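ok new one. same drill as before - structure tokens go in, u give me an amino acid for every spot. 362 of them this time. try not to just spam alanines like last time pls lmao
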């Protein structure tokens, strides 16, 4: 069996290296227009953008490494099946699932690699990118804002923004912790920052939302006040706005500490919980993709490699699309993130179990 194990691993090595190299390169090319725009239009140095470009490599590996596992299994075992090598192994009394044993060990090892990427390497890369962009960015405070981050630098306020499109902010949450009292919360569908001429202040214009207002009879209680337009003045004279680490730039230990801190202030930490659970779930994706690709490749007949690549993408795309959709819903606290973020894994493993079970019955 050692000879067979070494042969399988050897057959998988070349397509794995080729797949991860090509996928990472293709995704990197997608960022070039964005970085070139900063160099040409914003006057950012080529050296700074070159560093940002390099930091995209470990970030993209979190996506491309699991997909490369899927492509590798489909290409390697698809080739073996097309050359009747798998048929010869079955005729020799070797059960097909025994061929999966060495790949399972490799898959577990790659899961640990992806976990390390998600826990340490990718957050560090995001943090370095943010630092470089802030150093080369304009003095406009809105340039410091990051969607999905709790901005804890404005006087008295903690600001969270789900999405930023130009000067417009979407899904704005503003928290005002008060010692010994409940945290005041303002939620708005949209918002935008407006400079106050001649003053070191920003005016935050909020559109269509609700605000917690103190009950005059009992100041410790709030009632909800609906508004179409509201303004909040934020003082910049004491300290400049500085976005805290984005959730993607936090290690998993930092995420846990931040979740605990927000809960103590009665602030909903669902976006951070969703990010934490996503990292755990995606850490298992290499092994899941191996289990998905193996039965499909083992029963295939002669087929062009381009068709195999297409089938690999058809497996991977729904997984990531569903996972990102679940993260969006988990961030809105539609369902417990600890349950919602694991739905893609459970569905993928169910499909993999069915396919491998049918393979055993052949």
């Amino acid at each position: 069996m050692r000879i067979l194990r070494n042969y399988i691993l050897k057959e998988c090595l070349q397509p794995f290296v080729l797949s991860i190299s090509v996928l990472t390169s293709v995704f990197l090319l997608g960022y070039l227009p964005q970085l070139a725009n900063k160099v040409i239009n914003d006057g950012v140095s080529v050296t700074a953008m070159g560093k940002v470009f390099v930091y995209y490599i470990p970030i993209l590996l979190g996506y491309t490494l699991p997909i490369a596992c899927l492509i590798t299994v489909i290409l390697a075992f698809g080739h073996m099946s097309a050359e009747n090598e798998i048929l010869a192994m079955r005729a020799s009394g070797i059960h097909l699932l025994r061929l999966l044993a060495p790949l399972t060990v490799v898959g577990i090892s790659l899961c640990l690699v992806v976990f390390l990427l998600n826990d340490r390497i990718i957050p560090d890369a995001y943090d370095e990118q943010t630092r470089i962009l802030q150093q080369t960015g304009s003095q406009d405070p809105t340039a410091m804002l990051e969607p999905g981050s709790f901005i804890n630098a404005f006087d008295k306020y903690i600001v969270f923004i789900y999405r930023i499109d130009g000067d417009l902010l979407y899904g704005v949450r503003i928290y005002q912790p008060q010692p010994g009292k409940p945290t005041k919360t303002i939620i708005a569908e949209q918002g935008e920052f407006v400079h106050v001429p001649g003053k070191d202040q920003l005016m935050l214009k909020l559109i269509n939302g609700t605000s917690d207002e103190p009950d005059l009879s009992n100041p410790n209680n709030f009632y909800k006040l609906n508004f179409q337009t509201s303004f909040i003045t934020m003082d910049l004279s004491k300290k400049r706005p500085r976005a805290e680490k984005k959730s993607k730039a936090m290690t998993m230990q930092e995420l846990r500490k931040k979740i605990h801190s927000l809960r103590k202030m009665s602030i909903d930490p669902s976006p951070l919980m969703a990010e934490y659970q996503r990292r755990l779930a995606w850490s298992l994706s290499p092994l899941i993709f191996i289990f998905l690709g193996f039965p499909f490749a083992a029963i295939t007949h002669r087929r062009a490699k381009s068709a195999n690549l297409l089938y690999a993408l058809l497996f991977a795309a729904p997984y990531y699309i569903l996972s990102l959709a679940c993260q969006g819903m988990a961030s809105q606290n539609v369902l417990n993130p600890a349950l919602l973020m694991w739905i893609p894994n459970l569905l993928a493993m169910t499909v993999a179990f069915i396919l491998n079970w049918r393979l055993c019955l052949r």
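The longest strand covers residues 218-235. and btw The mean pLDDT is 83.
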